[in-house]
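Before the break, one more example. Copy the sequence into your notebook; we will annotate it together after we see the structure.
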Amino acid sequence: MANDGQKNEYVMEIYAGGSTPGGYLRCTIREDETLESLAARYHTTPETIMSFNRNPDRDWYQPGQIICIPLG
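Here is what the structure looks like once it is written out:
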């Protein structure tokens, strides 16, 4: 199916509370994103993201994968 020049929307959901003081956001990894770029954007580390998602396998974090990023 053609994209007709339209950009795919970036969907994020932010959740309050949980195990982090600032809550967390749930997002889908985009084609141009890496653990490092996501960590830099949200002021955390790749290791923190992997720990929060309970998956230490870097190969699991691919475009299209839905992950949670702790905030605060």
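The longest helix spans residues 35-41. The mean pLDDT is 83. Try to locate both features in your own notes.
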